[in-house]
Amino acid sequence: MKKLVLGIFFLSLCVNAVFSQDSGDMPVVSGLLLKQGNLKLYWQNKLALKDSEKIQRMLVLGQMVYILTDENYFFALDAEKGHFKFSRTIAPEKLPVYGPVLDKGLLYIIAANRLVVIDAKLGVNTFTQNLSFPVGMAASLNDMHIYLAGIDKRLRVMDKQAAAVSFAATADDDSFITALVAQDAAVIFGTDTGLIMSIKPEEPKKIWTFRAVDAISGITSQGTRLFVSSRDTNLYALDFDSGQELWKMHTGSALVAPPLATEKTVYQLAPNKGIYAVDAESGKNLWLMADGVSLMAESAGRAFVMTNQGRCAAMENKTGKRLFELNFGKVASFAANTADERLFISDAAGMVSCIGPAKK
Question: pTM score, two decimals?
Fold first, then answer.
């Protein structure tokens, strides 16, 4: 079925055929295979993808699963039951889309250099605005403001209510912003020179700075800590309030991906090395999986990791033991879910599956 597009930022015509929930299609991973890992299929739905259309990214935000295709078409499913919520075009094909970011029931998306705000469950626009400056990454938000990092090395701060730029900030060395985290207490950004700055959320006043040797690749906030990946080969843990270095782990590889953090563990992809699992409190290396590509989910102290051979490996974090692995050869896309224990996967044809622990 072809998608009827009413406009770049308008809802597309939605019909029941967009998904075939619990359809007769073969599952992405067989039930017998899942049973071997004490897992089961919770639900599956089929996206109506064109023959050449591919899933670009899959995100779990709040109680929803959001999927963006390489044609900038956007699908939303209820994460609990897999019910279809909405689908729509976000931007013309090939134009950059950053996000979405969820905040208080709204999705904030940078689409074709427009700020697009949509209802997270209904998919309707609540606000759109052309941006007069070029943005190069997803927005970050706190209670009062929207923070946008431009490719012109400026961090713009917009008031949520007025949607006007309140002020702009730059790094001390006028370097390019590569990572951004906003909270009510402070806004932290990292740059391509290895500088990390914390500023007050309502004015461009510096709180603290930290310096890595090379470019910052990603910053992830978890509780009172910041986990920072850098091209200087190190994974850092910093105190959110003071910027004090709590620990540093050398990976032996220039890090280009942001860390993924759960309550107790930080997962870091290191090119040509694999996936590291690191104790969030101490910085101790728990294990290294040489063939690991990304964390898929964590459950009861076990990490489910996609390998470069198309297999899902279960690692026991406490012992570093590889417990088992399952053939996920049909999986073409998956979410890196740090929120709960469910695995969200899809095959190339758009069959989306939710997998989780079998109840005992």
Answer: 0.92
